[in-house]
Specification:
It is globular, with a radius of gyration of 25 Å. Helix 1 packs across helix 12 and helix 7 runs antiparallel to helix 8. With about 325 residues, it is mainly α. Strands 1-2 form a two-stranded antiparallel sheet. It folds into 2 domains: about 45 residues; about 250 residues, MetI-like fold (Orthogonal Bundle).
Length: about 325
């Protein structure tokens, strides 16, 4: 009896030590994530706004007003022009086109998987969607360049009588829209399937069709999660780099024509990072100013998605 009591005490002690170790490990992971985020913000702020030591920050050399309102971005030519509007317009073009494609297709896919598909069909389609999410973005970019632009965009341009650039915003937006479909469909399906079955059965008991139940009962009940998935997908589109660099181009162009070449903020960062701009120059520090702008936009989108999720969350018992 005494031996059994001693053995139980030893097991309890080992379990307690293991739980403390797991707690410490999880805390360490969370702490590293916070420190990494803080370090990124620190670098962006010191290089863009507040100079560190003898270094001069970007906005100490370039007016914030000119940065936000000038219509030309040419940091490497002459005295340098640092108007971010062409980069913002290019980013919004591609993000908007991607949202128009990825959100409807992703939501329709989520509704089908949640409300219509049999378990066998769902087991086939979901892995295929995950394959889309696993394809490298470089492959998407070349797919847009060699397939979407010559076989889809250029025929449309000829029909409309519009000159189509080899690199264009429409092609890049389409391919980014394809890329975010798995994110929208996966997140939306999870929240749709979390809606209690009782709500569906109540709708069917009133004589509603499956479409009515899906659109008028299930979707409104899961609206907060669905909207959050939309905003997260848009944030993903905002931060896409390689696909839009290859398909959309790297020429800053303030245009309202999606058939022309544009440059996004991420594409500009890649281009400037690979240029011969000397470290510490205003051209080099423009990378951090653009990155800080992109960070602020993405941060606002994520905060907005969290606000919507909390404000309109439906809790079912």
């Amino acid at each position: 009896m005494k031996s059994e009591r001693h053995s139980l005490a030893a097991k309890t002690s080992v379990r307690r030590v293991w739980e403390q170790f797991v707690q410490f490990l999880l805390f360490t992971c969370a702490f590293i994530s916070v420190v990494t985020t803080a370090a990124i913000v620190f670098v962006l702020v010191t290089e863009s706004i507040v100079g560190l030591g003898d270094s001069v920050a970007f906005f100490q050399q370039v007016s914030l007003w000119n940065f936000l309102t000038d219509t030309k971005w040419a940091p490497q030519y002459g005295a340098g022009e640092f108007g971010i509007l062409p980069l913002l317009v290019g980013t919004m073009w591609i993000t908007g086109i991607a949202a128009l494609i990825g959100i409807p297709f992703g939501l329709a896919t989520a509704i089908y998987l949640s409300e219509y598909a049999s378990p066998k069909t769902r087991g086939i389609i979901k892995p295929l969607l995950e394959i889309l999410a696993g394809i490298p973005t470089v492959v998407y970019g070349y797919f847009a360049l060699v397939f979407i632009t010559p076989l889809v965009i250029e025929p449309v341009g000829r029909f409309l009588g519009i000159q189509v650039d080899t690199f264009n915003a429409l092609s890049a937006g389409i391919v980014v829209g394809i890329m975010i479909i798995p994110m929208v469909s996966s997140l939306s399906e999870d929240v749709l399937r979390a809606v209690p079955r009782g709500l569906r059965e109540a709708g069917y008991a009133l004589g509603s069709t499956r479409f009515d139940v899906s659109v008028k009962v299930v979707l409104p009940a899961a609206l907060s999660g669905v909207l959050a998935s939309f905003l997260l997908a848009i944030s993903r589109a905002l931060g896409e780099t390689m696909a839009v660099t290859i398909a959309g181009g790297v020429m800053p162009n303030l245009t309202l024509n999606p058939f022309e070449q544009v440059c996004t903020m991420t594409s500009n960062i890649v281009t400037m990072a690979g240029s011969d701009s000397p470290a510490g120059s205003v051209e080099y520090r423009s990378i951090y100013a653009v990155a800080l702008t992109l960070f602020v936009i993405t941060f606002v989108m994520n905060v907005l998605s969290q606000f919507i999720l909390n404000k309109y969350r439906e809790v079912y018992q």
